[in-house]
Amino acid sequence: MPSGSSRGGAEAALIGGEWVDAGEGATLRVEDPRPREIAEVADATPDDALAPLRRPPPNRRSGPRTAPGAGEILPAYEVMIERADELALV
């Protein structure tokens, strides 16, 4: 199963929002006891699970993480904090 596929195959694992094969290609037999079905699934390693954390998120700009217009809101917030006692009476 290729990385990034929209659906998981019998031998893929959903890791980081993508269906991927186990890094070592290992599979594991599992049994669903109710219908007595046996399937082969990806036997993912801890490195497989941590791989998405090592990649930067897609389409992410570097720099400060502030919302547009945040610089305009901060002065108003500071005034509200300074005048909190007066605002509490409103």
Q: In a nutshell, what does this entry contain?
A:
This protein is α+β, with helices and mostly antiparallel strands and 90 residues long.
Strand-helix topology:
Blueprint (H helix, E strand, L loop, with lengths): L12 E3 L2 E3 L6 E6 L4 E6 L3 H9 L15 H13 L1 H5 L2
Antiparallel strand pairs: 1-2, 3-4
Overall description:
- The protein has 90 residues and is of the alpha+beta class.
- The protein has a domain at 1-56.
- The chain contains 3 helices and 4 strands; from the N terminus they run E-E-E-E-H-H-H.
- The strands form 2 sheets. The chain has a two-stranded antiparallel ribbon.
- The longest helix is centred in the C-terminal third of the chain and has 13 residues, at 70-82.
- The chain starts with 12 loop residues before the first strand and ends with a helix.
